[in-house]
Amino acid sequence: MESSETPASPTLWTTVSSRGARRTQEQRSAETRARLLDATIDCLVRYGYAGTTTPRVAEMAGVTRGAQVHHFGSKNDLVIAALQHLAAKRAAAVVGNVGDVGASEDPIRTVLDLLWEVHQGPMFIAAVELWVAGRTDPALGREVAKFESIVASNLMTAVGEFVPEPIHKPMLDFLYTAMDALRGILIASFVDTDPSRARRRWDRAAANLRPLAEPLVAEWVGRGARG
User: Fold this and answer.
1) Contact in structure between 156 and 172 (CB atoms under 8 Å)
2) Residue 13 CB partners (closer than 8 Å, separation 6+)
3) What letter would DSSP give residue 7?
4) CB–CB of 86/43 below 8 Å?
5) Side-chain-side CA neighbours of residue 210 (13 Å)
6) Inter-residue contact 182 to 115 (CB < 8 Å)
7) Within a 10 A sphere around the Cβ of 112, how many other Cβ atoms?
8) Where are the domains of the chain?
9) Measuring CA to CA, which residue among 71, 78, 66 is closest to residue 42?
């Protein structure tokens, strides 16, 4: 007895197979791109902006020069994309930890510790390399400025989630002042032979910054009690 089932159309199978292959190719492409961006950040940290070259990035990423050129035709394209990648990572670092502030018994200490933590590791060092390079490269400088505005915007959003609206502005002023102080300490530490000195200097600065925020927290707590 002949089967009543209709054989699958070769065209249909071909279409399904090509879609699967296309998804796999897209995944491989995304992975290559991510490796190049991570390698660019690593290269900035290890060799500085001047030493960050496209052949060196391709070698560190473990991809061919052809693959690198396919994704990013020039060093400028690569660095700008890495900036965006870096901005996303730094924003995630801030947003991912902001809940700790609202739940803390000492929100000032928690905020200051959070600022310290998000400025540790390669992300901040790579950012500094790009700030300095952007001083004499107007096109790069404009992109760096956009990157900083993204970080600032995420900081403002994070503050808005747990700080009452009437004290948003003074709390942001406090955070920016604290961040400026911390960045100065960390940049100076790049040439310091004592790796622990930066933390001691930050603890001293934090102790002096704390009185600026204490009235804000008192108002914050008072509003919560009245509410």
Assistant:
1) yes
2) none
3) P
4) no
5) 14
6) yes
7) 23
8) 12-73, 80-226
9) 78
pTM: 0.76
Contacts of residue 216, defined as CB under 8 A and 6 or more positions apart, other chains included, come to: 167, 170, 171, 174
The encoded tokens of residue 35 equal: 């490796």
What does the pLDDT profile of the chain (227 residues) look like in tens digits? 555 555 555 554 455 455 555 668 888 889 999 999 999 999 999 999 999 999 999 999 999 999 999 999 889 889 889 878 877 777 776 666 666 666 678 888 888 988 898 888 888 898 899 999 999 999 889 888 887 777 777 777 776 677 777 788 888 889 889 999 999 999 999 999 998 999 999 999 999 999 998 888 777 665 554 45
CATH class of 12-73: mainly alpha
Q: Fill in the DSSP letter of residue 106.
A: S
For residue 164, what are the CA distances in angstroms to 99, 152, 181, 222? 15, 18, 25, 11
Helix axes 107-118, 197-226, angle to 10 degrees: 140
Alpha helices of 98-196 — where are they, by DSSP H?
99-103, 107-118, 122-136, 138-162, 168-189
